[in-house]
């Protein structure tokens, strides 16, 4: 509501208007975090230009001035990050939550700073060390690591010359049994030895701890140091065993993510503590009233677990993507080396190949976001259009090729099920889940219905038009035509399906008279519409040209949507990138991946993706033939949603930040790309490589897709939602999954 004082005319209106705008500008530029939204509407009839005060409000005419109309203000640390945030709101661009540049250390929260801190900081009050995470460390690693140190200590005492190292191992056995609240300190040595130990303070980018340089030859020759008999015995008998044990602890704790502090602890112990002479190490327990220690602190740990380590990143890559990367190597080696399934069966290889797609999808997404953020609009649009659907297309094409070689129509039906599952999942499940999770933190969430309406309109166009209940006219129908309910205005990818059901011949495999009356009711099984009657005249003369026409028109509509949203009507997003940072924060962009590095990773990830897709299609046949679950269900769940898991995680993170617009756009953009890019590409691919794929879907796919799109448009109509509406979408999605689960297998499988 506009204050009444602003409705009066006169010279005093200008300063009042300017002061209000300045206050809104101050609110806009003081937004903390990545995203902030603020809207204001000021309508002033016949406002003189001379009376307006500079501010965020701009005078568009002498009658009306609109300011900050539902404008989304983005604040970023640098221009590259601002470009990435701006691309998130553009239609056709991949939405990416993670940073593509290194964030300034002072801008991070205390929780995140603790994740990257070294384990050499003594806190004044550490609190109780008896926590669940510390007890978990004791049960998983502490007891056997301490026992190993006791055994090594016994071996070193037996050698006699290694007795100093034996005493050290005895002390370390007590330390690693419960290292919390204890400190390992490096004591001072005579100056003659300091030159040999200089430069041991370099930091490790991965585990956050200092690592020693290469041992210098002149230091080896020092009296009583590395050439000492005890040191030789230690390096031959004690250190290799303990280093291997600490390596296993580091890997295991790192894979558990929440125990990454234990991984840092073990890595520093193997690379720093065990390489120092015993006389230079001091192990002691800290007390609450103890004064700070003098000298260098090597290890000081209070907590073995931290639940916030899911935010941890290595060179901009999330820790989960780092941990899943070795899985890709294992999948490729096991899949191509053990081609005869001597080591593992097809089910294991199929599962590994499917899981390997998740980290590869993450790397492809980050590479696309990095290239787009560092390039102009044209390059970003080309990269997103080319590689945005590469994950799904790689799997679909390899499946169609394998089905064509084997003459098995089941692969084409599985691809259709996966396409439908991706469409339904991205329309119902992804936004619904984001609404539920975001609604737990925020009572009501709002989004830009104007920008969401573009994707919804394109999706509605690509799936189907206005549904009708009239019976198609019988005139002009081919022989054997059966009256059926059909859409009155079919459109999009299902137009050939609806066309075939109107003019195709209904053929049934088996029919039984249930009334024992020749004119009574018949119960028929395995019925389908035959398009190849009369030597395929209907299909080749009518259906196939319609399929090619639709496959050309849908990408054209997608390009028009890009031109509409990114060129002529960019104001529907109203994105403003703030160039005002916090006081004293002026940082240049330090990108995690340069354009060439991102391009190389993108190409390698695509190559690995094609190999994993080939393995998945190679070993899916036994699952399809031997499984009691419908092939429909396998396609719409596992094959459709597993590659989209990184996108689902991004959507949830946006929803938790009360930015539901991007959560909805993630699902809409994927669904639009399925209908307007992926399906036309598959159809055009069949021209050059004949397969069993035709753009004729089953009734279940048609009705599920159309109902999902209609429900989505109804939910998104008012531009606001809560967790109840999200629950409705999720429940409808699960109901459709139940329908697919109990549905019989498609014909040809």
Automatic annotation (TrEMBL):
One of this protein's Pfam families, by short name? Na_Ca_ex
Q: Please, one GO biological process term?
A: intracellular calcium ion homeostasis
Q: Show the GO MF annotations.
A: calcium:proton antiporter activity
Per the record, membrane topology reads: Multi-pass membrane protein
Q: Where is the protein situated, by its record's location annotation?
A: Endomembrane system
Domain (Sodium/calcium exchanger membrane region) spans 348-462, 598-740
The domain of life for this entry's organism is Eukaryota
State which residue ranges cross the membrane: 135-158, 232-262, 317-337, 343-365, 377-398, 418-440, 452-475, 546-566, 598-617, 629-649, 670-689, 695-716, 723-743
Q: Does the keyword 4Fe-4S apply?
A: no
Q: Does the keyword Ion transport apply?
A: yes
Any one annotated GO CC term = endomembrane system
Q: Which UniProt keywords apply?
A: Antiport, Calcium, Calcium transport, Ion transport, Membrane, Phosphoprotein, Transmembrane, Transmembrane helix, Transport
In this protein, which residues make up the domain named Inner membrane component? 132-182
Protein name listed in UniProt: VNX1 protein
Say which species the protein is native to.
Answer: Climacteris rufus (rufous treecreeper)
What gene is this protein a product of? Vnx1
């Amino acid at each position: 509501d506009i204050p009444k004082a602003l409705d009066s005319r006169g010279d005093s209106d200008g300063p009042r208007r300017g002061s209000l705008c300045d206050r809104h500008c101050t609110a806009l530029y003081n937004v903390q975090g990545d995203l902030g939204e603020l809207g204001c509407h000021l309508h002033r009839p016949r406002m003189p230009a001379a009376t307006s005060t500079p501010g965020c409000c701009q005078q568009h005419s002498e009658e009306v001035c609109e300011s900050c109309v539902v404008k989304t203000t983005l604040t970023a640390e640098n221009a590259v990050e601002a470009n990435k945030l701006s691309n998130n709101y553009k239609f056709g661009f991949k939405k990416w939550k993670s940073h593509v540049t290194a964030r300034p250390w002072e801008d991070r929260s205390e929780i995140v700073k603790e994740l990257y801190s070294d384990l050499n900081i003594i806190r004044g009050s550490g609190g109780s060390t008896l926590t669940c995470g510390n007890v978990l460390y004791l049960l998983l690693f502490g007891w056997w690591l301490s026992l190993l140190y006791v055994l090594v200590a016994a071996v070193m005492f037996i050698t006699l010359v290694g007795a100093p190292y034996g005493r050290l191992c005895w002390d370390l056995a007590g330390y690693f049994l419960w290292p919390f609240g204890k400190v390992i300190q490096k004591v001072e040595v005579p100056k003659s030895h300091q030159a040999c130990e200089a430069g041991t303070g370099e930091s490790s980018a991965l585990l956050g701890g200092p690592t020693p340089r290469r041992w210098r030859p002149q230091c080896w020759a020092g009296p009583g140091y590395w050439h000492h008999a005890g040191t030789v015995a230690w390096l031959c008998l004690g250190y290799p065993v303990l280093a291997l044990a600490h390596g296993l602890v580091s890997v295991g704790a790192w894979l558990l993510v929440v125990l990454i502090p234990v991984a840092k602890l073990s890595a520093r112990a193997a690379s720093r503590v065990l390489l120092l002479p015993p006389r230079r190490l001091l192990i002691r327990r800290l007390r609450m009233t103890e004064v700070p220690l003098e000298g260098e602190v090597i290890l000081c740990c209070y907590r073995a677990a931290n639940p916030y380590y899911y935010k941890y990143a290595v060179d901009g890559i999330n820790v989960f993507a780092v941990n899943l990367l070795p899985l890709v190597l294992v999948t490729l080696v096991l899949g191509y080396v053990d081609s005869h399934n001597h080591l593992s069966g097809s089910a294991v290889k199929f599962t590994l190949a499917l899981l390997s797609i998740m980290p590869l999808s993450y790397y492809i997404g980050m590479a696309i976001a990095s290239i787009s953020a560092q390039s102009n609009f044209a390059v970003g649009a080309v990269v997103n259009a080319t590689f945005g659907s590469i994950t799904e297309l790689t799997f679909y094409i390899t499946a169609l090729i394998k089905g064509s070689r084997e003459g098995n129509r089941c692969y084409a039906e599985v691809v259709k099920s996966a396409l439908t599952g991706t469409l339904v999942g991205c329309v119902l499940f992804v936004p619904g889940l984001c609404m539920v999770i975001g609604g737990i933190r925020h009572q009501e969430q709002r989004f830009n219905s104007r920008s969401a309406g573009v994707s919804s309109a394109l999706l509605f166009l690509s799936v189907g038009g206005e549904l009708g209940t009239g019976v198609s006219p019988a005139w002009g129908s081919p022989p054997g035509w059966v009256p059926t309910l059909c859409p009155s205005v079919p459109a999009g990818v299902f137009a050939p399906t609806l066309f075939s059901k109107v003019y195709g011949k209904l053929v049934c495999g088996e029919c039984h008279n249930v009334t024992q009356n020749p004119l009574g009711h018949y119960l028929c099984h395995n019925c389908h519409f035959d398009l190849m009657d009369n030597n395929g005249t209907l299909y080749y003369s009518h259906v196939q040209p319609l399929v090619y026409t639709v496959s050309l028109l849908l990408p054209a509509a997608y390009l028009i949507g890009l031109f509409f949203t990114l060129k002529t009507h960019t104001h529907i997003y109203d994105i403003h990138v703030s160039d005002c940072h916090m006081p004293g924060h002026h940082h240049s962009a330090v990108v995690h991946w340069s354009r060439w590095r991102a391009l190389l990773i993108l190409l390698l990830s695509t190559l690995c993706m094609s190999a994993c897709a080939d393995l998945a299609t190679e070993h899916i046949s036994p699952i399809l033939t031997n499984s009691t679950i419908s092939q429909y269900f396998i396609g719409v769940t596992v094959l459709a949603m597993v590659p989209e898991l990184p996108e689902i995680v991004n959507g949830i993170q946006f929803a938790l930040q009360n930015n539901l617009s991007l959560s909805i756009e993630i699902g809409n953009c994927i669904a639009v790309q399925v209908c307007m890019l992926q399906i036309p590409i598959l159809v055009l691919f069949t021209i050059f490589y004949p397969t069993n794929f035709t753009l004729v879907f089953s009734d279940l796919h048609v009705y599920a897709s159309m109902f999902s799109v209609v429900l989505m448009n109804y939910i998104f109509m008012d531009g606001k939602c809560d967790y109840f509406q999200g629950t409705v979408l999720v429940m409808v999605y699960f109901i459709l999954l139940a329908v697919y689960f109990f549905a019989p297998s498609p014909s040809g499988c």
